[in-house]
UniProtKB/TrEMBL annotation:
Molecular functions per Gene Ontology: ATP binding
InterPro entries according to UniProt: AAA+_ATPase (IPR003593), ABC_transporter-like_ATP-bd (IPR003439), ABC_transporter-like_CS (IPR017871), Oligopep_ABC_C (IPR013563), P-loop_NTPase (IPR027417)
Family annotation (PANTHER family): ABC-TYPE DIPEPTIDE/OLIGOPEPTIDE TRANSPORT SYSTEM, ATPASE COMPONENT (PTHR43230), ABC-TYPE DIPEPTIDE_OLIGOPEPTIDE TRANSPORT SYSTEM, ATPASE COMPONENT (PTHR43230:SF3)
Name of the protein described by the UniProt record: ABC transporter ATP-binding protein
Keyword ATP-binding: yes
Organism superkingdom: Bacteria
A Pfam short name: ABC_tran
Domain ABC transporter, chain residue ranges per copy: 2-242
CDD domains: ABC_NikE_OppD_transporters
Organism: Sphaerisporangium flaviroseum
Keywords, comma-separated and alphabetical: ATP-binding, Nucleotide-binding, Transport
SUPFAM superfamilies per record: P-loop containing nucleoside triphosphate hydrolases (SSF52540)
Length: 294
């Protein structure tokens, strides 16, 4: 369904844009229908930049994104299939207007003459387990973060989308609402929705995703079936991420120092090495690796 090939994003930075920063470098992975792929990595690793490129919110520097085999062209037809929901539900609403105004744009753009509009809204709201009486005709401040986030997912569902880019959508929610939204995503996945679940929280990625992509400094360091990446992490960075989770008191470096890379001297060519079926790992020393820098 969605495929990223050698996707790269270079930002212009510095006072006059004279310097460059490679936020995403040569990233390739795919998301199939009904599959949740989690994209994990620490802050600044390039996760949101990838989400924005998929959603056509920023231009790609190089590489390609295809949807159902066709290069992505942001526009009405694409957004009918692919939508995004972001971290802060409050910022997606204008506090002056009622929250259900977010549905109006979808109606004007895609269903101007729909006679069954109210029914469609009810179906979308019930899919996200919202009671119309509790959320329609309310201002954003009268709704909880979880309700606002669900409204945004319902808005995406009105289009009967195939792929949802969910960027840190639970990070501003309390623990019980977070589980509710995760279970909702699991339901939607069971109905065939593909989800790119962007998070820096490993436990959430583990909970939901069939496959996991670990990003570091804009490059994929490990990816594969979630049970393999979490159960048998091979890249030192993945191990560092995983071992840091339960040890809140230890510093990041203490958690698990980056060690010698098993693949550094392997002599195998290619950026990611397939170590077993569905499990790929990069060299730990990407910048200097004779394998990955050719
Ligand atoms: N518009 C921009 N111009 C210049 N640099 C940017 C821009 N947007 C992001 N960056 C930089 O690109 C890198 C990746 O940022 P990005 O927001 O994609 O990371 P992230 O993994 O999503 O982080 P977080 O988890 O904190 O949201 C960072 O170094 C960031 O400072």
């Amino acid at each position: 369904m969605l495929r990223l090939d050698d996707l790269t994003k270079v930002y212009k930075v510095g006072a006059f844009g004279g310097k460059t920063l490679t936020a995403v470098g040569g990233v390739s992975f795919d998301v199939a229908p009904g599959e949740v792929v989690s994209l994990i990595g620490e802050s600044g690793s390039g996760k949101t930049t990838i989400g924005k490129m998929i959603l056509g919110l920023i231009p790609i520097t190089s590489g390609t994104i295809t949807f159902d085999g066709v290069p992505v062209k942001p526009g009405k037809a694409y957004y009918r299939n692919v939508q995004g929901v972001f971290q802060d539900p409050f910022s997606s609403y204008n506090p002056v207007f009622k929250a259900d105004r977010v549905f109006r744009m979808i109606r004007e753009e895609y269903f101007p003459s729909a006679r069954d509009w109210d029914e469609r809204i009810e179906t979308a709201l019930s899919a996200v387990r919202l009671n119309p009486g509790q959320v329609l005709n309310k201002f954003p401040h009268q709704l909880s973060g979880g309700q606002l986030q669900r409204l945004l997912i319902a808005r995406a569902l009105l289009l009967d989308i195939k792929l949802l880019v969910a960027d840190e959508i639970t990070s501003m929610l309390d623990a019980s609402t977070r589980i509710d939204v995760l279970n909702l995503l699991a339901d939607l996945k069971a109905r065939g929705l593909g989800v790119l679940y962007i998070t820096h929280d490993l436990s959430l990625g583990n909970y939901l995703a069939e496959r996991t992509v670990v990003l570091r400094h804009g490059s994929v360091v490990e990816m594969g079936l979630t049970e393999k990446v979490f159960g048998d992490p091979l890249h030192p960075y993945t191990r560092q991420l995983l071992s840091a989770v339960p040890r809140l008191r230890s510093s990041w470096e203490e958690a698990a120092p980056v060690e010698t890379c098993l693949y550094h001297d392997s002599g195998t060519t290619g950026r990611l090495l397939e170590v077993e079926e569905g499990h790929q790992v990069a060299c730990a020393h990407l910048a200097t690796c004779p394998v990955t820098t050719g």
